[in-house]
Amino acid sequence: MAILVDTPMWPAHGRLWAHLISDTDLTELHAFAAAVGLPRRAFDLDHYDVPAERIDAIVAAGARRVTAGELTRALIASGLRVRGRDRT
Question: Which residues in the chain land under pLDDT 70?
Answer without folding.
Answer: 84-85, 87-88
